[in-house]
């Protein structure tokens, strides 16, 4: 099956050509570097914001966030997990929202889950929701097919009738100011 190469043979002449094997592998001329990896890209781990971290500002990511600290600002992510020791004051927008801690503000998500330790003060706009026994929630819940877009709700609300004070302020806003 294997033959000794004559190149390393001490008695072989330099003009002698080494034998080439006649196996099908030898006919392949593709270099090994052209092979693309067949494994998918690894998922990026979630960003962890520890309990001693306080952030004043908005957070935006296409990935996942695990919050244990205090955030004052809006958060947008793929998967948002608010830990038991966390406090978020602002709007939370994510495909999946899991609240174990405290949120003061609007929560928007395709899937929203309030665990038994959750404390939410604000409105929840969702496609699917789960509220465990023991969760504290103060606000309104509204189901929408596309809760992340901020578009119209599943049931259109009737327009509010103008009142005297709102009509006066609308007229004042509509009239051009004179300098």
What is the number of E strands? 14
What is the terminal-to-terminal distance?
A: 100 Å
SSE string, helix = H, strand = E? Answer: HEEEEEEEEEEEEEEH
Q: Strand pairing plus helix content: what structural class?
A: mainly beta
Q: Flag low-confidence runs.
A: 151-179
**Overall form:** globular
Report on the structure:
The chain is mainly beta. It has a domain at 47-143. Helix content is 8%, strand content 35%. The chain has two helices and 14 strands, in the order H-E-E-E-E-E-E-E-E-E-E-E-E-E-E-H. Strands 1, 3, 4, 6, 8, 10, 12 and 14 form an eight-stranded parallel beta sheet that branches. The chain has a six-stranded parallel beta sheet with strand order 2-5-7-9-11-13, with no helix packed on it. The radius of gyration is 32 Å and the shape is globular.
């Amino acid at each position: 099956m294997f033959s000794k190469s004559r190149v390393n043979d001490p008695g072989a002449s330099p003009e002698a050509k080494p034998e080439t094997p006649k196996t099908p592998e030898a006919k392949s001329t593709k270099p090994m570097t052209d092979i693309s990896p067949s494994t998918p890209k690894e998922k990026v781990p979630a960003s962890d914001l520890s309990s001693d971290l306080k952030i004043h500002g908005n957070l935006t990511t296409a990935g996942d966030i695990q919050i244990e600290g205090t955030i004052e600002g809006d958060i947008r992510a793929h998967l948002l997990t608010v830990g038991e020791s966390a406090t978020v004051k602002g709007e939370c927008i994510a495909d999946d929202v899991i609240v174990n801690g405290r949120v003061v503000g609007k929560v928007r998500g395709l899937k929203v889950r309030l665990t038994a330790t959750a404390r939410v003060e604000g409105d929840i706009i969702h496609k699917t929701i789960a509220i465990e026994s023991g969760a504290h929630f103060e606000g309104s819940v509204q189901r929408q097919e596309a809760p992340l877009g901020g578009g119209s709700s599943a049931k259109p609300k009737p327009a509010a009738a103008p009142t005297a004070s709102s009509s006066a302020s609308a007229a004042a806003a509509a009239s051009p100011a004179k300098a």
